[in-house]
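ARCHIVE RECORD
Type: protein–small molecule complex
Small molecule: SN-glycerol-1-phosphate
Source of inputs: curated submission
Record status: active
Notes field left blank by submitter.
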Amino acid sequence: MSSGKPKPGEPSSGKVYNHILNEINRRGSLYFILIDPDKPNSNLAKFIRTATDCEVDGFFIGSSLLLSENFEKCVKTAKKNTDKPVIIFPGSIYQISKYADAILFLSVLTSTNTEYIIGQQTLASPIIFKYGIEPISTAYILIESGKTTSATFISQSKPIPRDKPDIAIAYSLAAQYLGMKLIYLEAGSGADNSVPVEIIRAIKNFVQIPLIVGGGIKNPEMALKMSKAGADIIVTGNILEDIPEQKIKGLISEFVTAIHSNKK
Ligand code: 1GP
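STRUCTURE (tokenized, with ligand):
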């Protein structure tokens, strides 16, 4: 996709968000890959090109923690090697780059600390304004997944119990009523258990805004089940970092085929 960012200070065009909505309409469900700037990938450029050739729908870049200085380099490399949206999925105010197409403007609704609900967002806003990056208002909702994940620990969240879809529905409705544009249901990177399909299905009966689901998704079959339950965007991270290089292309293609097969 071409850049065409609004000039600093102009209201966001909503271009990337509209692209996502159009693609959801066209494809049914979308597949995004999470790039963790802290995980060394000597051949990130090649990885991004391979994923783009396999028709992945976009890339998120971010991490709960940021231990390396690679963040901006990752964003630039991704932008250089794909025409798909490159969107920041920030763990903190230190993850903002003017080279990205957009930023998920996350509020961690399950956090018990206002710092992660509105504090970091307040500090980030003037920078986002100055850079003219498109902010996409996103409710970040953590679901209990068997162990304390980095996302839960860092954001000081009280994750929603796996057997309480009603609570997940209530949070999601609140996000929609607050005018948020996306809901991100997170089990946490490397989670033992991914978000239950029952929770995805329950939320989709109540809210209209797109639903992103990520954390602990281990294979294309699982992704397809989530897509059929109503997930609009499926995200994987670890699974593609943990396999030999020669298997990456095949696995990305399998995820793309499975997720795109579910035209609603
Ligand atoms: C995206 O945090 C996830 O929401 C990524 O999780 O690394 O377990 O795929 P995995």
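CURATOR ANNOTATION: The pocket of SN-glycerol-1-phosphate is lined by residues 34, 186, 189-191, 214-217, 235-239 (CB under 6 Å).
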